[in-house]
Every structure is written in C-alpha cells, then in structure tokens.
Specification:
Elements lengths: L14 H10 L39 E6 L1 H4 L5 E7 L3 E2 L2 E3 L5 E7 L3 E6 L6 E6 L5 E4 L6 E4 L6 E7 L7 E3 L10 H6 L1
Antiparallel strand pairs: 1-2, 2-10, 3-9, 4-11, 5-8, 5-10, 6-7, 6-9
Length: about 190
C-alpha cells in the first residue's frame, strides 16, 4: 500500500502575474498584438465589477438606478442593464420607459409593481407582489411604479432594457396605456 501524501498547494500567482492578468481581463489571449485598450469596444468582452456601477443615470423619485451595461460604459447599442435599489417603506414616482422593453429580476426583498388595468371596463390598480428569483416584464410605454412595503429591508432588482440607455419618463399619475392622463385632459 502506498504511503499517504498530502498534495502540494498550487503555486499562487505573483503580484506581477496578477497585474498582467488584470490588464488582459476580458481580452482574447490569442489575438496577436492586441494589448489592453487597443481593441474597439465592440470587439471585446467587458467586465463591470459590482463596485463600479454608475449612478449617473435617469432616475425616478423613491428609487436609485445604477447602470452596469450601457452605451456609455461599454458601447452597447441595443441593451441597457443595471440595478435599481428601493429603500424600505418607499414607492417610486409613476413612470414609463418609452419605447424600451424592460425585464426585471428580483434579487433582494419583496418589491411590488403597480399598474392600471381596464380589461374589466373600469381602470383598476393591479399590484404584483414579488419575491427573490421572480421576473417581471414591462412592455413599452406602460405606466407603472415600484414599491417596497418592507419597513426595514431594501429591495434590489436587476433590470435589462432593449435600449442602450435607461429611458425614464416620470408621470404625475398612472393611466391605462392608450388613454389620456387626467392632467393632459385638463390642459387640452
């Protein structure tokens, strides 16, 4: 029977190797002559670290949006992706996202999504209660708001949009898509 031996630990990369790897991060190693920064934005993968999200994006009262993937950050042309944080016991302003389709993935908390539905003949406020792991789809131009009813826990969702930037049109009230808001009727 062979004696029991403890395998040697794998050598850890040196600081120089780690720095070189960081410079190559997301670049194809087999492309000759392409150092960090020399490939066009559309010819490489992009790594956006969690601590590098950009808060300089369209906002709605009651929530905070952070861009990860956008035209400005990575040169995307047809998608925007980021996070939204809703503080405890908070509701966002009413808003829609223009021509953009929006997909939402709940990662923390139990946010609620509110919109008006008139399929029964009378506009009725519909509230969708969610849990971590759930998904929501928001079609273009549909007025809605997000709420976080928790008295002490922040809600966090990941958002993907079919446009390169976060389109946010803040509204004075919810209305059924295709109908005129009361504020616009009063002005007209």
């Amino acid at each position: 029977m062979a004696p029991h031996t403890t395998p040697s630990p794998s050598p850890s990369p040196s600081d120089d190797e780690s720095a070189a790897a960081a410079r190559r991060d997301a670049f194809h190693p087999d492309l000759p002559g392409h150092g960090a920064g020399s490939l066009p934005l559309g010819a490489r993968l992009h790594h956006i670290r969690a601590d590098a999200l950009d808060g300089d994006t369209a906002q709605t009262g009651g929530m905070r949006r952070f861009a990860a993937i956008s035209g400005g950050s990575v040169g995307s042309e047809r998608i925007w992706m980021g996070q939204t944080h809703v503080a405890p016991d908070t509701a966002s302003s009413n808003h829609h996202h223009g021509a953009s389709e929006t997909a939402i993935h709940v990662i923390k908390g139990h946010p609620e999504f509110v919109f008006l539905d008139d399929s029964g003949g009378t506009p009725e406020e519909i509230r969708i209660r969610t849990a971590p792991g759930d998904y929501i789809f928001v079609p273009p131009y549909v007025p809605h708001r997000e709420e976080n009813p928790s008295p002490d826990a922040e809600a966090v969702v990941v958002i993907a949009r079919s446009t390169q930037e976060a389109i946010v049109v803040n509204l004075p009230e919810l209305y059924v898509l295709g109908s005129e808001p009361a504020a616009e009727r009063a002005e007209g």
